[in-house]
Write a structure and sequence with these properties.
Elements: H1 2-21, E1 27-31, E2 37-41, E3 50-53, E4 57-59, H2 61-71, E5 80-82, E6 88-90, E7 102-103, E8 109-114, E9 117-122, E10 133-134, H3 146-149, H4 171-196
Parallel strand pairs: 7-10
Antiparallel strand pairs: 1-2, 3-9, 4-6, 5-6, 8-9
The structure holds zinc ion.
Zinc ion (ZN) is lined by residues 105, 154, 156, 158, 161-162.
């Protein structure tokens, strides 16, 4: 009977060998030169590679606001990712390693939203040891507390560093720009109408 038992073993070993042969991980999490922990390439990552999905609890904007207004911005590092006007992913709850990817003003990664899911992809070839980063473009309002906005200072070290992880234009500024563009369009349309008369 002992022999029979051994006979069943090779199948198990074959399976183990397959597991051992699987691809080594693309990235590791370790201390970052930019901020706290960072995600670094463990091997060469070719341009266009889908590196990791940004996971976490899916909540509404209202729920996210309530959750983090209470806590305050301790170190300017929340794990919220805005997916749409309805959904925010809070990687502080059930999040994966993607939450440790820092902002960069000269990013080697980009985020791709597909069917409500968020993926981080390589924007260019990435060499082993390089820290992964993408443009956070955090939204803000000109009425936000300047002290709070200062929490989002960027120290990515890129030559093109803007000094902030915030979107260059505040949300209310964008709305103003959009309104101005709409008004300008109307004006041009009216001018054309007048010119035809
Ligand atoms: Zn920067």
């Amino acid at each position: 009977m002992k022999h029979a038992k051994q006979k069943s073993r090779p199948a198990h070993h074959a399976h183990m060998r397959r597991a051992a042969r699987s691809e080594p991980p693309l990235y590791t999490v370790r201390r970052s030169r930019i901020h706290g922990s960072g995600v670094h390439a463990a091997r060469r990552i070719p341009k266009g590679t889908r590196i990791v999905e940004y996971l976490g609890e899916r909540i509404s904007h209202a729920a996210a606001d309530a959750r983090y207004e209470e806590k305050g911005q301790d170190d300017g590092h929340t794990f919220l990712f805005v997916v749409s006007s309805k959904v925010v992913i809070d990687a502080g709850v059930d999040g994966n390693e993607a939450r440790f990817i820092n902002h960069s003003c000269d990013p080697n990664c980009e985020t791709v939203i597909e069917g409500g899911r968020v993926f981080i992809e390589a924007l260019r070839d990435i060499e082993p040891g390089e820290e992964l980063g993408y443009e956070y473009g955090l939204t803000w309002e000109s009425t936000d507390d300047p002290d709070e906005l200062a929490n989002y200072a960027c120290r990515c070290g890129a030559a093109s560093c803007r000094g902030t992880m915030l979107d260059p234009v505040p949300l209310d500024g964008k709305r103003r720009q959009q309104a101005q563009r709409r008004a300008a369009k109307k004006k041009t349309a009216a001018a054309r109408k007048n010119a035809r008369r």
